[in-house]
Structure formats: structure tokens, C-alpha cells
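Researcher: Next sequence.
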Amino acid sequence: MRKVSLLSLVLIISSLAVHAQEKAKSRTGFRAGVNYFAQRIEENKEYSYSDFRTGLTVGLFHEIPLGTRFIFQPELVFNNMGGEKDGTVTKLNYMSLPLLLKLHGKRFGAYVGPQFSLLLSAKVKEEFDVETDVKNSYKSGDFGGIVGLEYSLGAANSFVISFRYQFAMNDVLKDGDPGEAIRNTGVQLTAGFRF
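Model: Next structure:
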């Protein structure tokens, strides 16, 4: 049922975008920057957080006007996520698809939307040990939400600086014990360019 509702939402937004494109110009761009991600760890209804792990984020975005103030912005982004706890570093690499609805003014914009991520690799490195592949311990997909702010500058607002917070909406641990869960959460700071 969730997939049908999501597909319906994407189709509605796409049809609005086609209508709006007749009036305004869509733009494509790229962005790159740093991720600061941690893992929220749940065990028997008790929560703790790993330390933050610094990683890379790089991707493409496409802005589709939905009117004078709103933009639909799908993206395709490579993200390093994970965390560090008790000397153990968890490195998760995802290909993410954010679907953002943006309210923008002359220079400032704010956006919100879901993000679907496909797990590319998962490795764990303990202190003084080699990296171990743990991809089979994690679900192949991650579902989260994004809220963020951006500032545009330069000729035709071509340059953009963005700050976003990503919160987890599902457990990424596969076959965990009852009451055990891991969720990815973090912030991103990026700079980009619109064509």
C-alpha cells in the first residue's frame, strides 16, 4: 500500500511539473560536500548514539518549477554514512534518491522531502584490525526524511550553499534481535552549481 501511495504522489508531482515547465525553466546542477553521520542504536528500549563519522556526499539535482515559489527537486546522490562507537568504525555507502519540495525566495530556500537509499557497501573496522564486509547484516534499503536550507548567489543564482538534516524513518539492521535497531541520522553541508 505504501508503494502505491508513493507512486501516486510521484505521478501527481510529475504531472504538475510538466504543466509548470511550460511557464518556467527547469535547471540541473551538481553539489558536493561533507556528511556528519551517526547511528542511533536501540537495545531493549534504551537508546544511545555512536560518535559522528565524517564522510563524502556528491550528486546531481534537477529543479522543476511548480509555480512561482515552489520547486520539485529530485536528486541522485552518493552518501557515506555510518558511525564510530567503542573503537569500532562502521562505514556505510549508499546511493540516495531524495525527492524534495522546495519553497524559494530570491536568495534563500527551504526544502523537505523523503529520501530512499540503496546500500552499496557496508564495512566494519575494529581497532588494530582489518575491515570486515558486513553488508549481509544490513537491509538493502534505507528510508529517511530531509529538511534543509539553502542560499543562492552569483549570476542567475548559479552557486548554491546548502545545509540539511537527515532523520531516519526505518531500522537498517537486518535480522536483529527483538528490541534491537540501528538508524542513520546526520547533517550535510554542501556547495553546488546550477546550469
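Model: Residues 2-194 form a domain with the Porin fold (CATH 2.40.160.20). The beta strands are 27-43, 46-49, 53-65, 70-85, 88-104, 108-125, 131-133, 141-153, 159-168, 180-194.
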